[in-house]
Amino acid sequence: MDAYLVGGFVRDRLLDRPHNDRDWVVVGSTPEEMLARGFQQVGRDFPVFLHPRSKEEYALARGRDTDGNLTTGPGISLDEDLARRDLTINAIAMDREGRIIDPFHGRQDLEQRILRHLPSFSDDPLRILRLARLAAGLDFSIAEETATLARNLTERGDLSSLAPERIWQELRRALCTPSPRRFVEVLRELGALKAILPEVDALFGIPQPEKYHPEIDTGIHVLMALDRVTELTTDPLVRFAVLVHDLGKAVTPPEYWPSHRGHEALGVPLVDRVCRRLRIPEHYRKLARKTSRYHLMVHLALELKPRTLAKLLDDLDAWRAPEDFERFLLACQSDAQGRKGLQDQPYPQADYLRRIHTLTRDISARDVPTHIHGKQIGREIHQLRCRRIATFRKQCSPGDFSRQDD
């Protein structure tokens, strides 16, 4: 039995990037032999085994039979197994002594920072999304013939066969890369953004008022907001909220362009639609809905009355979920600073709302007079918060905060 390290571990090691998860391919063995050696089987169609001590994954080598179907067996060679992979840079193996096996010249493509497909790329349409994710994560270019193949597969409708969960998993991983913007750009270049996120694709070409958005194009604004949120946080919840925060602008009738009155509320059902279609987890949906619905109110926070501010924090569930409130503020900041020439503009609204939240978070039913009961308790808590906010506003000097427009 021969075992070789394969895939991302070898690729990232050669790139001198962090490489922790190790995957092995086993040549010349059978499921019975693996079980006899103490391995635990976890795969069904094509057996994958966990090492009895390290718990690392060991997969039996796979190749094509005479009919072109995937098969496994002791006669499958390492080269056959590597040939079924998606890209040359992922078809490099390393033996236990550290020797590199590279039958498809993936090492050369690593040196040239190029993503180039293997003939089996077409086997799984998810590889189109993975191609975009690797371009974003590694900052690699895509070979022209590979881009052409991906476009052809997309035009053929191959992405429609993907399970929603697989699309979301790839999207979430892309949001965690150093450049989610690049992921969106590559998908759009390949025609795949329209297939998996048509609500985002529709934003490109939609104009906005140049006074507030010097970049004008809404799609470009979303890309710039993604750049800004990438600088502020690695949290994929915030990054997803930024990606879908302006979906409502795509449904503004053209006769009203470049104005987009009410786009915040119009975007909420579109956020819901995306999340339902891709079966995105509920906590992502909740934050994205809040960001779509209330980001403009945050931009105008310095002008809002105490009762409006108190209701805003109540609607955001800020007192019960302070971590999500902070995520929400980061998404709003990314929106405000994701504009041409305004990336470094201060955003005092976030600190203003943080201070109001801190001042009001300890108000509870304990502060309500004992003669007040039932629903009146909630109303009284709201009034107490309003009074404390009003007092805080009076104590602020005019220079403490400055207005920011959307």
Description:
This protein has 406 residues and is an alpha+beta fold. It folds into 2 domains: 1-112, Beta Polymerase, domain 2, CATH 3.30.460; 197-400, Hypothetical protein af1432, CATH 1.10.3210. α5 links the parallel β10 and β11. The mean pLDDT is 93. It has 18 helices and 11 strands. The strands form 3 sheets. Strands 3-4-5-2-1-8-9 form a 7-stranded mixed sheet. The protein has a two-stranded antiparallel ribbon with strand order 6-7.
Biggest sheet: strand arrangement = 3-4-5-2-1-8-9
Low-confidence stretches: none
Total helical elements? 18
Q: How many beta-strand elements?
A: 11
What is the CA-atom radius of gyration, in angstroms? 26 Å
Determine the N-to-C terminus distance.
64 Å
What is the CATH C level class of the largest domain, in words? Mainly Alpha
Please, what is the average pLDDT?
A: 93
Strand content: 5-15%
What is the fold named in CATH at topology level of the largest domain?
Hypothetical protein af1432
Please indicate the count of domains: 2
Topology record:
Elements: E1 2-6, H1 8-14, E2 23-27, H2 31-36, E3 40-41, E4 48-50, E5 57-60, E6 62-64, E7 70-72, H3 78-83, E8 93-94, E9 100-101, H4 106-112, E10 114-115, H5 126-138, E11 141-142, H6 144-155, H7 164-175, H8 180-189, H9 193-196, H10 198-201, H11 218-232, H12 236-243, H13 263-278, H14 282-299, H15 306-315, H16 322-337, H17 348-360, H18 375-395
Parallel strand pairs: 2-5, 10-11
Antiparallel strand pairs: 1-2, 1-8, 3-4, 4-5, 6-7, 8-9
Helix pairs in contact: 5-7, 5-8, 8-11, 11-12, 11-16, 12-14, 12-16, 13-14, 14-16, 15-18
